[in-house]
Amino acid sequence: MSKHNRRTVLGYSAAAIGAGAAGCLGSVEASSDDEESDELEILGDDPDLPVVAVLATGGTIAAEGEEGDLTDYAAGEVEGAELVSGVPEIFDHANVVVEQIANVGSSSITEKELLDLAQRANELLSKDDPEIAGVVIPHGTNTLEETTWFMNLTVDSKKPVVSVGAARPPTALSPDGPLNLVNAVRVAAAEDAQEKGAMVVMNDEINAARDVTKSNTYRVSAFRSGELGVLGYADDDEIVFNREPTSSRHTYNSEFDVSGIEELPDVGIVMSHQEASGVALDALVEEGYDGVVVHGHGNGAIAPDMNETILEEDYDIPIVLTTQSYNSRIQHSEDDLEEGIISGEDLAPLKARILLRLALKETDEFDEFVRIFKEY
Fold first, then answer.
1. What is the pLDDT of residue 270?
2. Which of 57, 60, 141, 251 is catalytic?
3. 60 catalytic, yes or no?
């Protein structure tokens, strides 16, 4: 990276590393077996401010590209410590601990990164010295909603877990990442953000993990929560919440514990469409997948050939039915229940897949799958 681009990436006007913004309160021991990570370095020098943990994963917010270009860049090129230190306004609101979980485009996120994030967030949020007020996860936007939903189900804490991304890389003209990152830290440090579960903060908006989805590839207002709307806003003067999450079964009220887990059951998604067959569904079952989410139409209607395959094959794995109608839910049908099909309620297919992966770690009982999807 050239010196010119380095200044652009880190400070968006001038480098901030080494300045007062990256002052250090001190180091404290961390509960880790890794000898190289036995201390937490706290960036910031105000003992009256809360401490927020930043678990960096890469994405456009940490990208590098041609100066001024909005789309020609490589995701996951700037490390989290550089990203944070390059936005000194963060330290007006919190002191920060930064750890690098990954540094990739979010389409490359796997169960390893998901489990690493959840397990580390649980460790940090349970600490007393220093007490961590909340967690911020800089992340690529392509799968940001999936990671946020996973954290919503697996982090056992009332404290905020905030995912944040950017539509434009740091090297672009008018990047959105710096303000998004500041606002994410503000939300993670806010007492009013407790018991809200995991959230996405971008474009001054706070969206709930369960409801949010990426709705645009290029716009800074890329994330929407459908008819339910945002949880609140990161206004300039304060963090404002206008509603509660639609389900209370999240974070501290979730039954899913991923402590010590190294892998998750395999769940795939098949999509119904005109003339859809059962070939894709059969392929997943033959490959040994543990469950399948069907992306159906309307109230869960699926193409006749695919439906016939489900009925005739009588698969010995859970099948969850979801809908392409973004603001709708799958109403419970006695026929579906008798045929062993589980309603995905109003969860998007991507989120139904994650919930089913976690449910499969807990149970193999059909009635329990139905309960879990109804409650979460």
1. 97
2. 60
3. yes
